[in-house]
Design brief:
Elements: H1 2-20, E1 27-31, H2 38-54, E2 58-62, H3 69-76, E3 84-89, H4 90-99, E4 110-119, E5 121-125, H5 134-143, E6 149-152, H6 158-170, E7 175-178, H7 182-191, E8 196-199, H8 203-207, E9 212-217, E10 245-251, H9 256-270, H10 273-281, E11 284-285, H11 291-311
Parallel strand pairs: 1-2, 1-3, 6-7, 6-8
Antiparallel strand pairs: 3-10, 4-10, 4-11, 5-8, 5-9
Length: about 325
């Protein structure tokens, strides 16, 4: 009887391991912004890298709306088994929750997993605008109150906050024009419908001459534009909230072993030359972090961003 019991247990072990293992099926990787946005580009880059490491398909699903809050809420409400993940950003975790009831708590509804890195942005204008530097833009905006407008990925997006911060520090008025995503905001600026956009998605338009870059936002100079000064070098934005970041999150309650596996595979993917090169093109500085480090970053940015939003009377 004992032998039969041991034999039955031994035969059952592979099936139990498979049932309790991770991953068990394809993974939904939610991008909370439309196709073409920086978040979408990062999502697809990381999904392609993670799939072979995890041994399953990692399928990007765009779930846009409300500054990234729609997609974030969908993940927060999903089963915490690691098969539904969020490519989060500052927009949907540190900005949108301050602007209204998004249906999730950015500090309690998610299990932080990994960071794709800090992001740079470029301050870019339509070439018809008679300015070539950021100080010249500010001077023009001061001479013509309410003339300047800027496009962003929507109310509560990082581009919205950056534009409001620039107007506040520059001492001028500007009109915010929200779009469904950053790609649409950049395209509108290329068309001349908007004067200004502050987003990494503007970089290819700058390189092709469709937009004129005035400065970048980031901890240091963006390697794509080594001759372009940072706003901080010009004395602007030194105390603004984080320029931005992208990271991987799961629903709260996801098993620690699953989080650890995803963190390891995600961070290993960041070291692949093709992944590193792609992320740098999209304006990121790849940065492998632990789940604990990601959690600390979100908490710190959430507090600082909330204070800035209240001061600007956006929240």
């Amino acid at each position: 009887m004992i032998r039969r019991s041991l034999l039955a247990t031994g035969l059952a072990m592979p099936f139990l391991a498979r049932a309790q293992g991770f991953p068990e099926r394809p993974i939904r990787y939610l991008c909370p912004f439309p196709p073409g946005a920086t978040n979408d580009n990062v999502s697809r880059t990381m999904a392609r890298a993670l799939g072979p490491r995890l041994g399953v398909n990692v399928v990007v699903e765009n779930r846009a709306g409300a500054g990234g809050a729609v997609g974030a809420r969908a993940v927060a409400e999903s089963k915490p088994d690691g098969h539904t993940l969020l490519n989060a950003s500052a927009g949907n975790l540190t900005i949108a929750p301050h602007l209204g009831n998004v249906g999730y708590d950015p500090l309690r509804s998610f299990a932080p997993i990994a960071s794709a890195g800090e992001s740079y942005s470029v301050v870019a204008v339509h070439p018809s605008l008679p300015v070539t530097t950021l100080p010249e833009l500010i001077a023009l905006a001061r001479r013509r109150p309410g003339f300047l407008n800027y496009g962003s990925a929507g109310i509560g997006s990082a581009g919205h906050l950056r534009g409001a911060l620039l107007a506040d520090e520059g001492g001028f008025e500007a009109v915010h024009v929200p779009f469904p995503g950053s790609a649409a905001a950049a395209t509108s600026t290329v068309a001349g419908d908007c004067h200004l956009v502050i987003d990494p998605i503007a970089a290819p338009h700058v390189r092709e001459g469709r937009l004129r870059a005035l400065a970048t936002l980031g901890a240091d100079r963006w390697e794509l534009f080594p001759d372009l000064p940072t706003a901080a070098e010009l004395g602007i934005g030194r105390h603004w909230p984080s320029g931005g970041w992208f990271g991987l999150f799961a629903p709260a309650g996801t098993a620690e072993a699953t989080v650890a596996r995803l963190n390891r595979d995600f961070n290993d993917s960041l070291g692949e030359p093709e992944v590193t090169a792609a992320l740098r093109r999209f304006g990121l500085k790849p940065e492998p972090l632990s789940p604990e480090d990601v959690a600390r970053r979100v908490a710190a940015d959430h507090a600082v961003t909330g204070a800035a939003l209240r001061r600007l009377r956006i929240a």
